[in-house]
Design brief:
The protein has a single domain, classed as Heme oxygenase-like (Heme Oxygenase, Chain A). About 80% of the residues lie in helices and about 0% in strands. The chain contains ten helices and no strands. The chain is globular.
């Protein structure tokens, strides 16, 4: 079993907790409130900016050219995802320039950037991998019986797509190439998944006037 497979299988409890979270289930049914999704969009846009920076930092540190190119291609994928968020922001009347990060968002972005700046590229890609693999998993699960027709169809379509699955696999390839099976690697992966769950929880519990 590869490192990527070990990490994903070992921490399935958190992946499943995210899948059954009421925020994610609200996306699945289309019944999630507009206010909660609008909050999520703003926070996710802030998060993705940090995510793109972490890719760039890791790219600057890798010794091989192939890894450098792949990390920059993954960063380009984040920029494309941010364009989708700009579309959401316009549709849901969210001013992305006025977003202040919630505590759960700040914990996640600080963790990613501290890892990118202070650790080797192997641990950085481990810290980033749960985001892509989890979202691909959620999208595919929510689209398992076909794409629903409601306000969140585009979200499900994006993360269930073959294109997004390919991005997740590319990042997992880098995990297998650069990371080792150590307690630190497992702890880093688990903390990132915990941050993902906290991110959904913060959006679910937000109180919007």
């Amino acid at each position: 079993m590869t490192i990527r497979q070990q990490l994903w299988q070992t921490h399935q409890d958190l992946a499943q907790a995210c899948l059954v979270h009421p925020f994610v289930q609200g996306l699945a049914s289309g019944e999630l409130s507009r206010a909660k999704f609008a909050f999520y969009v703003g926070q996710d846009a802030f998060f993705l900016q940090a995510f793109a920076r972490a890719y760039s930092i890791a790219a600057a540190k890798v010794a091989d050219w192939q890894g450098f190119v792949q990390l920059h291609e993954l960063a380009a994928g984040v920029l494309a995802e941010l364009k989708l968020h700009q579309h959401y922001a316009a549709q849901w009347e969210v001013d992305l320039s006025a977003i202040a990060p919630a505590p759960a968002t700040r914990c996640y972005t600080d963790f990613l950037l501290a890892t990118a700046w202070g650790q080797d590229p192997g641990l950085t890609v481990v810290a980033m991998c749960p985001c892509l693999r989890l979202y691909a998993f959620l999208g595919q699960q929510l689209a398992a019986n076909g794409l629903p027709k409601h306000s969140y169809t585009d979200w499900i379509a994006t993360y269930s797509s073959g294109e997004f699955e390919q991005l997740a696999q590319t990042l997992e390839d880098l995990v297998d190439r650069y990371a080792s099976d150590t307690p630190t690697v497992h702890a880093t992966y688990r903390y990132a998944l915990t941050c993902e769950h906290s991110f959904f929880e913060a959006a679910w519990r937000v109180v919007v006037a």
